[in-house]
Amino acid sequence: MSLEEYKRKRRFEATPEPPPKLERRSRHRFVVQRHRATRLHYDFRLEMEGVLKSWAVPKGPSLDPADKRLAMQVEDHPVSYFDFEGTIPEGNYGAGTVMVWDVGTWEPLSPEPVKGKFVPGTDAEAAAMLKKGDFKIRLHGKRLNGDFALIHIRSRRPGSKGTEWLLIKKQDDAVIPGYDIEKYDTSALSGRTMAQIGGDQKSAKWESSRPASRGKVKAPWLAEAIAKAEKKKKLNPKGNSSKIGAGVTARANASTSEDARAYNSQRRSTTATNGRKTSSKAILAVDSLDGAARKAMPGAIYPMLATSVEKPFDDPEWLFEIKWDGYRGVSFITDGKVRLVSRNQNDLTAQYRELLDLPKFVNAKTAILDGEVVALDDEGRASFSLMQQRTGIRSGGRRVGARIDVPVIYYVFDLLYLNGYDLRRVTLEQRKKVLAGIITTSNIVRYSDHFSEGMKLFEAAKQKGLEGILAKKRASCYEERRTREWLKIKITKTLDCVIGGYTLPEGSRQYFGSLVLGLYDQKGRLIHVGQAGTGFDHKTLAAVWQSLKKIESKQNPFHGEVDALRKAHWIKPELVAEIKFSEWTHETPEGGQKLRAPVFLGLREDKDPKECTFEQ
């Protein structure tokens, strides 16, 4: 199969699913997506040969070898589908709610056992096994672990297309007799249920969610009308806006950009509209822009996404912005009301109720803004760990109640529609010029300014401890896909940490699960700062394990409790690991500050553990 079949079945202007793109390399990941379409089923996907090889599993995978699950092979999906979670609108192929049920990595198993046990194989063996129809794999996931077999079978049913396979769990340490998949009903990424993702409270049982005689949608325009009608039912937030707490005092400065001054100087008059001011000059200015089109306001926008690159640069054809570390949000403003939608088309309006006042600070009757919802720390830096506390999501899959006392702010960086004009074919530089002129800075909204020198901005962001920067072509139009017209350049943080222990492996992983890390405080006490369970291959796992075994200890080297997700085993604090991480989390009731997303880079034999202090 190829991505042509995936492309043929979809209208990408009407579905949030990513467009087809063949990747140059595969990272051996797997994903299981729970999909409530005509029937609830699970989509099992393996990253392989630049695509996601895909099977629809009606009853879902099982960790019980007695369960031989039917798996219908379907069209290859693009790798960008890996983290797709949201709702496919009515009238589209596969319409319904999609949840990421499990994620992880996989490895092929050699078809020839060694001493009766399966051992890791090669990509060439994987391709041959898939073609043969006897495909053995090992999964390392959050929920699925151990060895599995995908067996191609010959169906006797009339009209069979030969796409029937069986997904079978092999006997190993990860087996769970009587495995019940219904016990795991939340997303492996966001912690949400199907009902929360879909914005409703429909049953998640394995049964038809639509009448069997629904029939086919006759024409594209009718499909779009159905989709809009469905969205209109869901988008009716109620309740009063809550006030932002006064605890956060340091905020990013209001914009003083040349764009704002130039645009504001062009205003000639304002007229009252529904208790707000709307610039008549704004309409005239937009009308004169190349690419502006008089159109009805779009009902959905799928955000333009940036491609990752490693190094910053300077180029007069590009402008540069701060990369805000939060949740992407497109806001639709109509007659004093706002609807905030995520990149996966989930309604965020009720989740961030302080942003209901957004129309008061936008000088427009109708507008579509693109931006980032962020939580700022006391120094005005966007903190993803604070955003997690606001939403109630913790790393490691734990979910707790949302902290509504953590305020959010909306950084707006693009304008896609204004007072009857579609601006997506207008250049970015012109869109930002108009945007700067209609935004009034407040405690809930800021204009995200831009700069001409990427190297200097990158260094400034690095010194301030920010996530990174974005580079955008000044002449770029707004494309609702990932593109190289926009680039993201992340800042990598590293730290040397003391290894004070390790956790046992899960599933088929060997040697150990993660390293328990610490830093010394001013009193010389070793303080727990997190666990690193990624960054290892089989070779480094074995090598590090040899070092750990030599210095095992019954004594806990840490001061205070260690809140590891699994039981820790201690070692003498004699080893130092270089760790890459994204940021420090903020203190929570569960414990002190921790490293967010720590990744093992290697052992530092040249470092004394006593040098690993918070002062680094």
Question: What's the arrangement of secondary structure elements?
Answer:
Layout: H1 3-8, E1 29-36, E2 40-48, E3 51-57, E4 68-77, E5 86-88, E6 96-108, H2 123-132, E7 134-141, E8 145-152, E9 164-169, H3 194-198, H4 220-234, H5 258-266, E10 270-273, E11 276-279, H6 280-287, E12 293-294, E13 305-308, E14 318-322, E15 327-334, E16 337-341, E17 366-374, H7 384-391, E18 409-418, E19 421-422, H8 428-438, E20 445-447, H9 454-463, E21 468-473, E22 482-490, E23 493-503, E24 514-520, E25 526-532, H10 538-550, E26 568-581, E27 583-584, E28 595-596, E29 599-603
Parallel strand pairs: 13-22, 18-20
Antiparallel strand pairs: 1-2, 1-6, 2-3, 3-4, 4-9, 5-6, 6-7, 7-8, 8-9, 10-11, 12-19, 14-21, 15-16, 15-17, 17-18, 18-19, 21-22, 23-24, 23-26, 24-25, 26-29, 27-28
Quick structural summary:
This protein is α+β, with helices and mostly antiparallel strands and about 625 residues long.
Would you mind describing this structure in some detail?
With 616 residues, the protein is an alpha+beta fold. The protein folds into 3 domains: 3-231, no CATH class; 258-490, DNA ligase/mRNA capping enzyme (D-amino Acid Aminotransferase, Chain A, domain 1), CATH 3.30.470; 493-611, OB fold (Dihydrolipoamide Acetyltransferase, E2P), CATH 2.40.50. The protein has helices at residues 3-8, 123-132, 194-198, 220-234, 258-266, 280-287, 384-391, 428-438, 454-463, 538-550; strands at residues 29-36, 40-48, 51-57, 68-77, 86-88, 96-108, 134-141, 145-152, 164-169, 270-273, 276-279, 293-294, 305-308, 318-322, 327-334, 337-341, 366-374, 409-418, 421-422, 445-447, 468-473, 482-490, 493-503, 514-520, 526-532, 568-581, 583-584, 595-596, 599-603. An 8-stranded antiparallel β-barrel has the order 1-2-3-4-9-8-7-6. The radius of gyration is 26 Å and the shape is globular. The two termini are 52 Å apart.
